[in-house]
Amino acid sequence: MAALGVRPFLVTIDAVAVVLGVSVMEVTSRGLSTDAPLRKTLAFGAILLAVFWAGGLHRSRLSLSVLDDLPSMLGRWLIAVTAAILGQIVWSRAVWQDYLINWRFLWGALAIGLFVIVLRAAGYAAVRSLRTRGVVTCRTLVIGGGSVAIQVAEILTAHPEYGLHPVGFLDADPPRRDRPLPLPLLGGPETLPLVLRSWQVHHVIVAFSSMKESEMVDMIRTCDRIGCEVCVVPRLFELHHVDGDMETAWGLPLVRLRRSTYRSPTWRLKRLVDVLVSGTHVVDRFRDLRPSYGARHRVPSGLTGWAQLHGRGDTSPADRARFDNHIENWSLWLDMRIMLRTIGSAMRGAGR
Questions:
Q1: Interstrand relation of 252-256 and 247-249 (parallel, antiparallel or unpaired)
Q2: For residue 218, how many other CB atoms are within 10 A of its CB?
Q3: Which stretches does DSSP call E strand in the chain?
């Protein structure tokens, strides 16, 4: 669980809640001449799991609280109920040319909702207990050596229920202090890959540092490439509004960075499409002259791309690198946009 986070655990809890809810409906439906309520309850459970996943209720989090999740869970429960009812209407109209809704499935939906709340409350308590006892924990590196970085390390040390065990700091030139750092200084930017591997770090928190922003970007990409989860303390965090997609550690807001696209399951689908469609990364000089030019080689070659759509032959190497590095925002929909815009550009004979 330390490496994978709580996502598999939460999916399992919700799946068990669905099974229990369906079981309740099976017991209450015995003696009836139809198993329609049972099948519709099962369909509702599948929809609920999908809606929870899409709504981020299965994402890994530091702070786990049913009360915090309750408004989101209730809203998505209503969405799943609505989708199940609409599905019944569409199905019955297609089969019987009329719509018939078996409202008894709502009892099963209600049972599933209650089981989800109860099991999540118990599951959250179990995770917090395992984290506090050190059974489930992630080795964590704090990038930075100033007051904010120290604050991060002290919070994580004092509150093991977040499941992050800080092992040290990484900073090129930390500010001088009257007292030593509470954790060892493990080196500068050049030692990052070695530190991540030798200390078996799974989580990185980027606090304010003396390093240049270009160095920080390279370091974050290195963390992601090695497979670490990365959170960033936002600038002016004292004024930062904490929304549902952010993490908090004892009141300190943390922005969890999105995983690089090549670590997502849909990336394999993209590569398959690229190979099938395109089937039948001067570099050293530009890497020295243009920041982030080397990072663009993460983008697999293909027939078209974001840089090609923005005047590949007319743009500077820096612009091409910037457009290729837009891969950080990749999604299947972005690929569709690129292909559609490529068709339009080809028909117009234009580069953008």
A1: antiparallel
A2: 18
A3: 138-143, 164-170, 203-206, 229-232, 247-249, 252-256
Does 330 score more than 60 pLDDT?
Answer: no
- Dig out the tokens for 271 from the structure: 């590569």
Q: Which residues contact 184 (CB under 8 A, 6 or more apart)?
A: 167, 168, 169
Contact (Cβ atoms closer than 8 angstroms) between residue 223 and residue 204: yes
- The CA distance from 223 to 65, in Å, is 28
pLDDT tens across 247-296, in order?
889 889 999 887 665 556 565 666 666 656 544 464 555 555 555 555 55
Where would I find the H helices in 55-191? 66-96, 105-132, 147-158
**Phi and psi dihedrals of 247, rounded to 5?**
-95, 155
Both tokens of 85, joined, read 């009812």
Q: Please give the Cα distance from 249 to 123 (Å, whole number).
A: 20
Q: Which residues neighbour 31 within 8 Å (Cβ) at sequence distance 6 or greater?
A: none
Please give the single-letter amino acid code of residue 272.
L
pLDDT attached to residue 310: 62
| C-alpha torsion 129→69→117→8, nearest 10 | -60
84 burial level (CB within 10 Å; 0-12, 13-18, 19+)? buried
Q: Which two tokens stand for residue 228?
A: 């670490």
Q: pTM of the predicted model, to two decimals?
A: 0.73
